[in-house]
Input
Amino acid sequence: MFYLILTAAALLFIAHVVLLFTSFQKSALLPTRYFYSHLTLWLTGVLVFVLALLYSGTGQLLFLDYFDTMQKKMMILVFTFALSLVAHFIVRLLVLPLLKPKS
Output
């Protein structure tokens, strides 16, 4: 089960990156693809949270052993949400103005 969740999280993160970079075509943002890029990021965060819940302290993965309290485990979800929010603002405030055609 550990490797299944870990593989799913890795594949979702790769899908997130691919969807994010392919959300921009010419001078437009493809909203559906952009939403799915965020969705795959959120699902990745949830799966990492589940991994921490199930396997922290077991020695399966040293990274997961760091999350030994519920507060640290919750920070995975907080970080995922914050990362999504920051990325959204970067796209809206910096990237999209650069994509608009010059008049």
